[in-house]
Design a protein that fits this description.
2 copies of one chain form a homodimer.
Chain A lengths: L4 H15 L8 H8 L3 H13 L3 E4 L5 E4 L8 H9 L8 E3 L5 E3 L12 H17 L2 H5 L8
Antiparallel strand pairs in A: 1-2, 3-4
Chain A binds a DNA duplex (30 and 30 nucleotides) through helix 3.
Amino acid sequence: MMFSTRTEYGVRVMVELARRNGDSPVSLTDIAASEELPLAYLEHLVARLRKAGLVEGRRGARGGYLLSRPAPNISMAEVVEALEGSIAPIECISQDADGGVVCSRETDVDHVCPTKLLWTRVQGSIVSTLQDTRLSDLVQQRPAVAA
Amino acid sequence: MMFSTRTEYGVRVMVELARRNGDSPVSLTDIAASEELPLAYLEHLVARLRKAGLVEGRRGARGGYLLSRPAPNISMAEVVEALEGSIAPIECISQDADGGVVCSRETDVDHVCPTKLLWTRVQGSIVSTLQDTRLSDLVQQRPAVAA
DNA sequence: TGATATCCTACTTGCGAGGTAGGTTTTCCG
DNA sequence: CGGAAAACCTACCTCGCAAGTAGGATATCA
């Protein structure tokens, strides 16, 4: 297994927010009930989404959460990255400021990491897939659109 | 992070076996030394590779391991799956016997899991990337080692 | 003013990755 | 034949983190 259930839950929350998108915010109590997830745990997830600027919270009675942007403007790469921390297939791989892929095993210039090519390819395919999928794509209920 | 270091190490072992591929087997002692990995831990990894039929062991003095097949005939999907157990982006997703993607959250026919589309896409892109990359692709990118 | 919600901090728990240890069996080589 | 060197096997340890709980402080509406 590669992504934590935290990410799974978080994506479900985002879909639910997009689905009920309207003038009034949606409370986590409602979402916890309809998705059958523990409220206290959802609060942690949503904190990540909020800090990433994907949702906005309204405090107090009749409060809740709203999407910061319309669903078509939110890529699932943003959502997953906010929940997961970062998107890297393996510990030694990360992205530098320029978006280039860095392998921490390559301390020496001579010593090219033979597996870097593999993880770079995997990383690229995951990220581009997540970027191409928008939150709005998951809202429209179409049965079985498997790839 | 998505793949364990077990998978990272295992891939490095496979690359090393492919690189030194010849008539005589390569011992884990050698690989552990050159890759700077703990021998006892490598034994566990290689056991998985052996059970998956990717590698053959020769016991006794002058023994070691050999690739069961030529490197171009080994896809990295096989290697990663042997090491990781299975390739699924998330707990609720798995593959059935026909290769179709199954979501364990979809108990009811009415209740289509809205996030299944996302994980299906991610799963597909990872698997196809791993299948397209052969073990031999990772070997040929370093100046030839003195034999 | 009370109910309802976000928001914040601290704690608990279970599990699996990562690694160690020590043995048994097999095979080569001198 | 007798080590030595290797695979092979089983059991164990430990530590970090995901997953979840708990309880409160703060904000807002009716």
